[in-house]
Input
Amino acid sequence: MGFIDKIIGDQKRRVAGHTDLSGWQRVSWQLARKTSAMMVRGMGRGPFLRSRRGQVLLGRGVRIHNPQFISVGANFVVEDFAEIQGLARDGLVFGNSVSIGSGAMIRPSSYYSRDIGVGLVMGDRSSMGPNCYIGCSGGIEIGDDVMLGPGVRLFAENHNFDDTDSESIKEQGVTWSPIVIEDGAWLASGVTVTSGVRIGKGAVIAAGAVVTRDVPAGGVYGGIPARDLKKR
Output
């Protein structure tokens, strides 16, 4: 119960001085009820994972497909209605204290056709905001302490379209190319990252940017396509 106690303790410190005792008691009860239900769901699904190193908390409506390919560290949190598909050549590997936001989708492979994708590695204390889409067929590596804001989209593949005579774009297939996001980077709300891009350590990507080329460590990039704005 140490993880649950930490969540309750952190919440209590956040509201200290902003509410009366009765208000805190209601917040405490509400949070305890939510996290307890998440813990029970995690206990039910956790044994089906490839491996886990500690507590798993799952929100309402979470869908985990092919859990035998998914490894999680301690204190793994998945919020309501997120979807995680594990079917991947290298599986999905999540570090300690990783959180997945509500409505996020992680898909390394198509459900019904095409080759099985490479997969995802997500480091310690990294977080994924609500409604992110992680297309990791070509492989995605996310370092430690990385923040992905709401609605971030990562695509480690690109459709082929060179042949204009004999085949439709759909029939020409895709090219996989990995995405790497190094430690401590922050991708703000609505950022899109295309295949083959590396984002350096501690870089910041402004909201709504489309990143089509590498970003150096400590860079601040924004725009469509993303360009160098300044250094941190």
Summary: The chain has a mean pLDDT of 90. The CA atoms of residues 123 and 144 lie 4 Å apart. The longest helix spans residues 21-45. The longest strand covers residues 227-231.
